[in-house]
Structure formats: C-alpha cells, structure tokens
Amino acid sequence: KRHKIEEKMRVLEMQKLAEVEKYLTEGIEDATQLVHLFTDTVEEEFSIYSDA
User: Fold this and answer.
1) The pLDDT of residue 49
2) How many domains does the chain have?
3) Stated pTM of the model
4) CA-CA distance, 34 to 18, in Å (whole number)?
5) Residues 13-50 pLDDT 10s
6) What is the 3-state secondary structure (H, E, C) of the chain?
7) Of 6, 25, 4, the residue nearest 14 (C-alpha)
8) What does the alpha-carbon distance between residue 48 and residue 1 come to, in Å, rounded to a whole number?
9) Which domain holds residue 18?
10) CA–CA distance from 29 to each of 33, 35, 38, 50 (Å)?
C-alpha cells in the first residue's frame, strides 16, 4: 500500500514539475492557472491518499 502511494506521488511530482517548467519556459496566458496550481496539487495529493 505504501509503495503504491509513493509511486503515485512520484508521478504527480514529475507532472507538476513539468507543468511549472512549461510555465517558466513558454510563459502563461491565464494567470489563474498559477493561482490554482498549489491548491489543485494539494487536492490531487489528498486524492492519492484517500484512494489508498
């Protein structure tokens, strides 16, 4: 169970890092995406833990 959570968290981390890197290199059209980045990530983390 713990390993599943760790793997899902690693995948989420890589996805979010790629998303941030994209914002930094390409810029962003809608600033609300940045505003919601943290809260969306936290919700996704909670989802991973609750599904375990």
Assistant:
1) 92
2) 1
3) 0.82
4) 14
5) 999 999 999 999 999 889 898 889 999 999 999 999 99
6) CHHHHHHHHHHHHHHHHHHHHHHHHHCCCCCHHHHHHHHHHHHHHHHHHHHC
7) 6
8) 11
9) 2-51
10) 9, 13, 18, 33
